[in-house]
């Protein structure tokens, strides 16, 4: 009897009938023991909400992998920087008043990636580093390294024993792979910004071991993965640890859904939940990503998400590579001030009081850009004007206020410089950015003025 209890657990693991059966049998195989334990101690039932939670969590990692696949399938090479022409990027919600440079870096215990940054004065810049979940893990600029704002920076795996010169600023990273996004403000002198951009270099100090890009099918924003995502879930989670604490519970749900998806009896139900509940909930949550005021939504968390994995997945979906609030604050809307969806064929105005002009609210610069509502990419127009900002030579009203106009055609009396063309017959999104946000913005006290429909 003791031999049986030793094999299968404590006395409390069995009911009277089970004990009686074991006494009669005298022994029990390990397989039979496991079957009996499962029957007597069934796993908690998987709810539809568990499936949705696990799906939205996993989607964040899938979206970053999708971008890694797209990038490494084009002109990216590991540990080499790609300098983009202004406006020469195609991801969601790009900022069009900076020169972007991009890279994927790979590091390990014996190799760092060296970034050499020229001296940049009187304009915004940052070298942003993100991990495989879309989390910002570092920024290199005058704010974060006031004693070493330029020169050489070694991006190293935390704990790696790599010998560096004393003049090199070491930056420890949590992952073996990272995405780099450098921004330099174009400002009033774009040519100088581009020269500074091209002086930035990147090189590996050794020969890092680079894991292959995870193999997953490509997917579009309007055709997200189904239950097949959980066929890859265990392998996918193993490729990149989640650096945020407290994620064990949601990862346990992913493990449970992945195990259930392998059972044909449960697989069809999981697919049904994903298509009818999880994906619609994810799309709907875009409207509830943060606090809404004047029709503008400010994300509650961005860049660094803590336990808010849903916001992380949503940002990876609609604005991948978003930075944190210490660098910039983003406001987004696809509605007017009354909550009605924006119509590209309608005229909207947005007026800033003279004591709250947008330029007074940011240390560096501000901008507003229109993007479509599916891929969140800039919308083409005959004028080839894609944003308004502090370099747009905007004309103030007679009382000192400032009115921006969004419309398919320039309304009579509207200064051409104050007008941003919109797509007639389509809903669209506006993204308003403040780089180097002022105290009222960082404290969450300020929201841009509402868009007012012109009758």
Identify the notable features of this structure and list them briefly.
455 residues; alpha+beta; Immunoglobulin-like; 4 domains; 19 strands; globular; disordered N terminus
Strand order of the largest sheet: 1-2-8-4-5
What form results from the Cα inertia axes?
globular
What is the helix content? 25-40%
Q: Could you name the ranges where pLDDT drops below 50 across 5 or more consecutive residues?
A: 1-28
The total count of helices amounts to 10
Polypeptide structure, described:
By secondary structure, the chain is of the alpha+beta class. The chain has four domains: 2-40, no CATH class; 48-65 and 214-286, no CATH class; 79-204, Immunoglobulin-like (Sandwich); 291-453, Sandwich (Jelly Rolls). It is built from ten helices and 19 strands. It has helices at residues 2-8, 16-25, 30-40, 48-72, 190-199, 233-239, 248-261, 264-285, 309-318, 439-442, and strands at residues 82-83, 98-106, 113-117, 125-130, 136-140, 151-157, 169-173, 177-185, 201-204, 290-293, 296-299, 328-333, 348-352, 362-372, 387-389, 402-407, 419-421, 428-437, 452-453. A hairpin with a 2-residue loop joins strand 10 (290-293) and strand 11.
Helices and strands in order, then pairings?
Layout: H1 2-8, H2 16-25, H3 30-40, H4 48-72, E1 82-83, E2 98-106, E3 113-117, E4 125-130, E5 136-140, E6 151-157, E7 169-173, E8 177-185, H5 190-199, E9 201-204, H6 233-239, H7 248-261, H8 264-285, E10 290-293, E11 296-299, H9 309-318, E12 328-333, E13 348-352, E14 362-372, E15 387-389, E16 402-407, E17 419-421, E18 428-437, H10 439-442, E19 452-453
Parallel strand pairs: 6-7, 16-17
Antiparallel strand pairs: 1-2, 2-8, 3-6, 3-9, 4-5, 4-8, 10-11, 12-18, 13-16, 13-19, 14-15, 14-18
Helix pairs in contact: 4-7, 4-8, 4-9
